[in-house]
Design brief:
The protein is of the alpha+beta class. The protein contains 13 helices and 10 strands. It holds the Pfam family PQ-loop.
């Protein structure tokens, strides 16, 4: 039998080797650099500071070189910083860097480290916005809150009109149903991206330097819109509605949306889609609803030759919100010289303009074309006409 003898010399050597490995592991942590804050706004002709924060173990001098790709928009002082290790090789220092705004624009500034790999520079970037005017920034912010309030309040006048009349005759059920679908999927999109850390990480993986596009007011608005629309739908089951009902065309459109959602869900389940892709599908449905939801109400008003039952206050508030939203985009386009976000990708601006055009149509119907019928005297006539038309082959609010 072979006997194993304990050798104190070997043991001591083994412990020394283990200690060396541990020390090496500690010194191999390295240093990292972060630019803070990572979103900076500077006014043309003015200066704004940000900071380069370096912390960790550093074995030799390193140099931080700030990119100068946008010298026509901003000047940077200094453009290069020498970082030296402190006592024991550990560094914990903050360096101030100053920006001077020259011309409006939006871009990234990066800090590249030499020698490469000596310092972790994954967070060594900032998003810089150079603006023409600070007052315009404040005005844009105020406008944003005003149109947010206008759009939020715009859901309530219709419910008040329904309550006072104890009737929903004149309110298109197609419009209401499509609106409920649109706001529901929009709320699902906002809530998931705002509250789910998993989905937010998916977004950041695809957009490493992006910010979560969903803000708290987006979540609040979409949830409120869904609840308010659902309450209006509930009124349709309580109050007098004649023979109005959701048309087959509207049900067909909603069926298509449901099929699309199911297919997207299956693709997620089979790992063909990510959850973020599924949410994008919901956002596309919201955009589609916005394009078509006003048509049934405009057609219903035309057929009845009246806007009784359709809240003009709702239209006025929606018109106010839409106009202010587009005004804000134009102000921001000028202030940041960012016209590409409007005309290069016209989806948001185009949808706002599309909604405003329908609001103008509703105002023309209410105040010009059918102004003589916008009174309570026509209520009974509208109800009886709706009933008679339905008995002769369909509902008044069906799409052609």
């Amino acid at each position: 039998m072979t006997r194993t003898c304990w050798n104190p010399v070997v043991t001591i050597l083994w412990l020394c080797a283990l200690a060396t490995v541990r020390c090496s592991a500690q010194t191999s942590i390295g240093a990292s650099v972060v630019l803070d804050p990572q979103d900076v706004t500077v006014i043309v002709g003015e200066r704004q500071s940000f900071f380069a924060k370096v912390r960790g173990m550093l074995s030799q001098d390193a140099r931080l070189n700030l990119t100068t790709d946008h010298t026509d928009l901003v000047e940077i002082f200094p453009t290069s910083i020498v970082v030296s290790p402190g006592d024991g090789g550990f560094i914990d220092r903050v360096y101030e860097i100053v920006l001077l705004g020259l011309s409006p624009g939006q871009f990234d500034v990066d800090a590249n480290v030499l020698p490469t790999g000596l310092i972790d520079d994954a967070a060594a970037f900032i998003r810089v916005t150079v603006a023409n005017s600070q007052p315009i920034i404040l005005i844009s912010s105020v406008i944003g809150w005003i149109y947010f309030a206008a759009w939020t309040v715009s859901f309530w006048p219709q419910m008040i009109v329904n309550y006072r009349r104890q009737s929903v005759v004149g309110l298109s059920f197609d419009f209401l149903t499509l609106n409920l679908v649109g706001h529901s999927v929009y709320a699902a999109f906002n809530c998931a991206l705002f509250w789910s850390g998993f989905i937010e990480q998916e977004y950041l993986d695809r957009n490493p330097r992006g910010l979560n596009p969903v803000l708290a007011n987006d979540v609040a608005f979409s949830i409120h819109a869904t609840i308010a629309t659902l309450l209006t739908v509930t009124q349709c089951f309580i109050y007098e509605r004649g023979e109005q009902k959701v048309s087959r065309i509207a049900w067909g459109i909603i069926t298509v949306f449901i099929v699309v959602i199911i297919v997207a869900g299956v693709l997620v389940g089979t790992a063909t889609f990510h959850w973020l892709d599924f949410l994008y599908v919901l956002s596309y449905i919201k955009l589609s609803v916005t394009l078509i939801k006003y048509v049934p109400q405009a057609v219903l008003n035309f057929r009845r030759k009246s806007t009784v039952g359709w809240s003009i206050e709702n239209v006025l508030l929606d018109f106010t919100g839409g106009m202010l939203s587009m005004l804000q985009m134009l102000l921001n386009g000028y202030n940041y010289d960012d016209w590409a976000s409007i005309f290069g990708d016209p989806t948001k601006f185009g949808l706002g303009l599309f909604s405003v055009m329908f609001d103008i149509l509703f105002m023309v119907q209410h105040y010009v074309l059918y102004r003589n019928r916008a009174n309570e005297k026509t209520l009974q006539e509208d109800s009886s006409t709706t009933t008679t038309t339905a008995s002769n082959g369909g509902s008044k609010d069906s799409l052609p």
